[in-house]
Design brief:
The chain has 9 helices and 9 strands. With about 280 residues, the protein is of the alpha/beta class. A hairpin with a 2-residue loop joins β8 and β9.
């Protein structure tokens, strides 16, 4: 596995692969890899000749009161995991390589798509995501880019700017990878104590309860949201950030489930903010 640390290195590697007629799959990550990330890499491995992973904690997608400085950075351990896939190359730049002195160009997805769910709670977050993903797709010359359904709003945002900017990359969303308990795998899970991790199972439990109600015939969105929030409130350590539902992938308001709907939640367990979701009336694609 090649370790690429500069813009010049990843550009040269991508050019060589393209000159050889190979397809490239990109998996953007911020490191601290877990089984969910590896699931994306394995999918990329199946569908492409070459797999490039970015391992970069992107400073421009963190707000002033968020956890950029304490976000886990464990590159050696990440490399060991990537080699099991195996990955062909990992791009691991310094922030100054991606945003050198004088940098002043950003990708901003406007409109209601970025002003709800996590976008409402984290101003500027998707500006940072859109900017770094655009740069990574350009640098890697990817044919396909892989993202997890846990970040379903992010996938909608990425697909929007890829379409709007005529970027020739197919965006692939991979279903959520869960621990045996049902907890969605996340780099932030490591922040929690064993007691908090046990409490965090309430996220997936609440979504499963809403999904069961939907499959039993309940189509009213407000009722499904209430079923979810009422279940979360049974856990003393849980504090709801939001419970909401929108059409997917357009993320438009809806009252009755007549098309695929994203039921999404953000919940704090202690000090750790977790997100999870389920798509009702459709599959992750």
């Amino acid at each position: 596995m090649k370790v690429l640390k500069t813009v010049a290195e990843i550009q040269a590697f991508a050019k060589q692969m393209k000159d050889e007629g190979k397809t490239i799959g990109l998996v953007p990550t911020m490191g601290a890899l877990h089984e969910g990330h590896l699931t994306l890499m394995r999918r990329a491995r199946q569908e492409n000749d070459v797999v490039i992973v970015s391992d970069f904690v992107n400073p421009v997608q963190f707000g002033p009161n968020e956890d950029y400085d304490k976000y886990p950075r464990v590159f050696d351990a990440d490399c060991e995991k990537m080699e099991t896939v195996p990955v062909d190359a990992v791009f691991h730049p310094e922030p100054s390589e991606m945003y050198p002195e004088g940098y002043c160009t950003y990708v901003n997805v406007e409109g209601d798509l970025t002003h709800k769910l996590c976008g409402a709670q984290r101003p500027g977050h998707f500006r940072g995501v859109a900017t770094v993903v655009t740069k990574l797709m350009n640098l890697s010359r990817a044919d396909h880019a892989y993202f997890g359904q846990k970040d379903a709003q992010q996938v909608s945002v990425v697909r929007r700017f890829v379409k709007d900017l005529n970027i020739n990359v197919e965006i692939v969303m991979v279903p959520i990878c869960r621990e045996e308990s049902g907890l969605a795998r996340s780099s932030r899970n490591r922040y929690m104590s064993d007691t908090e991790k046990a409490a965090a199972v309430i996220l997936s439990k609440s979504l499963r309860k809403a999904k069961d109600a939907f499959e039993a015939g309940e189509k009213d969105v407000e009722t499904l949201k209430k079923i979810t929030s009422d279940e979360i409130k049974t856990e003393p350590l849980a504090t709801i950030d939001y419970v909401d539902a929108y059409t997917y992938p357009a993320l438009e308001p809806i009252k009755t489930v007549t098309e695929p709907v994203l039921l999404a939640i953000a919940v704090k367990i202690g000090k750790t903010r977790l997100i999870d979701n389920v798509i009702l009336g459709g599959d992750a694609k």
